[in-house]
Amino acid sequence: MSSRLEAEHLYKVFGRRPDEAVERLRQGAGREELRAEGTTAAVIDASFTVEPGKIFVVMGLSGSGKSTLLRMLNGLLEPTAGQVRFDGQDLTALGSRELRQVRSRKISMVFQHFALFPHRSVRENAAYGLEVQGVPRAERVARADEALALCGLAGWEKSWPDELSGGMQQRVGLARALATDADLLLMDESFSALDPLIRRDMQDQLLELQKSLKKTIVFITHDLNEAMRLGDSIAVMRDGRIVQIGTAEDILVRPADDYVASFTQDVDRSRVLTASSVMDTSVTGHEADCDCPTATPDTPFVILCAISARVTHPVAVVDPRHGVVGVVPKQRLVGFMGDQAGEPSPCVSRRERGEKVIARA
Domain ABC transporter spans what residues (predicted)? Predict the structure, then answer.
């Protein structure tokens, strides 16, 4: 599948002689070294691709460079070096007028603090991007109302922003982005200002919309649980650099370094992991031919635990033809719930390691 969005070796440096600073960074200079000289390297050599219809999450602590990176993707900030390509078009080579056209028609942004006009109705706020495009009034009203209905705001079209809760205001911001039918949505900490329950409700709303709309989304967050819930793939940033890109399972099970591992230690693993993450693949190639409960590679961890609780032997993980592709001993489940790597202890019996499950399954 071809990439819809590509970032290639992006740098953003603020301060004196930014081009010289980029060259020094390429030669190994550190961020702190440049900062001591009055230059801030906000993003350093960032590269990634986003496939059509996927949610790409960029996460990191404050000051890691994630919001600066997002603003380079739609030209709000010009990269000091590197390229951004959208559907094969080099956005970094466009003039200001061409870039405004791309932003108004192909790329929409959903902000953290709603950015609604208080003197405009909910409908007028949702239709604002279409108004900028010059869409006739009747069409923009129809499209705005359709987007509001998708976001659960049918019946609120004539209300004012201050009559809405924070979660509802954020839905208006999302509807405004959807009304333009942009191919790419950029979401900058869009749910961070919301209360936890409302925030989870907005995550549910986004995932539900994504099932039908299949937008390409870049989502910025500092919350790892949110990243793992939303992201088809996740980039972890630290001090301006992307230190790891992978699925939620990749980052949780195979962290690139101690920094990423420290991020994941408090994550509820049962909401992320599947059988494919925790199974022992050293015992494979047999067919499960009994009535014992089995799992598939994409069986959620919580269901896998429930299956394991019902049997005395390791759970067999099977493919569509019922062939065993791995087994999950109870000790392995316990290991993955904690800080363990998930490997069975050397003192685990042959039966618990899965050698007998093949005979029974």
Answer: 5-264
Q: For 61-95, where are the alpha helices, taking DSSP H only?
A: 66-73
pLDDT band at residue 302, thresholds of 50, 70 and 90? confident
Q: Are 111 and 254 within one domain?
A: yes
Closest CA to 4 of 179, 246, 184: 184
Residue 70 in any domain: the answer is: yes
273: its two tokens:
């992991």
CB-CB contact of 209 with 150 (8 Å): yes
For the record, the structure tokens of 348 come out as 């685990």
Q: Residue 206 corresponds to which tokens in the numbers above? A: 């986004």
Q: From CA 217, how far away is CA 208, in angstroms rounded?
A: 14
Residue 14 located in a structural domain: no
Same-domain pairing of 331 and 258: no
Picking from 267, 288, 311, the residue at the C-terminal end of a domain is 267
Query: Which residues sit opposite 316 in a β-bridge?
Result: 294, 327
How far does the chain reach from its first CA to its final CA, in angstroms? Answer: 37
- Bridge-based pairing of strands 81-86 and 5-14 is antiparallel
Burial environment of residue 181 by CB neighbours within 10 A (0 to 12, 13 to 18, 19 or more) = middle
Q: Taking Cα atoms as reference points, which of 332, 344, 329, 326 lies closest to residue 284?
A: 326
Distance between CA atoms of 129 and 122, rounded to whole angstroms? 13
Q: Report whether pLDDT(289) > 70.
A: no
Q: E-strand spans in 266-335?
A: 294-295, 315-318, 324-328
- CA dist 106 and 180 (Å) reads 8
The three-class DSSP label of residue 339 is: coil
pTM above 0.70, yes or no: yes
Mean pLDDT on 346-355: 38
Of 48-57, 211-220, 294-303, 350-359, the poorest mean pLDDT is in 350-359
Q: With beta carbons less than 8 A apart as the criterion, state whether 79 and 92 touch.
A: yes
Please name the amino acid found at residue 183. Answer: D
On whether residue 339 sits in a domain, the answer given is: yes
Are 172 and 122 in contact by the 8 Å Cβ rule? The answer is: yes
Domain end call among 244, 267, 290: 267
Euclidean distance between CA atoms 147 and 138, whole angstroms: 14
Report the pLDDT value the prediction gives residue 338, as an integer from 0 to 100: 57
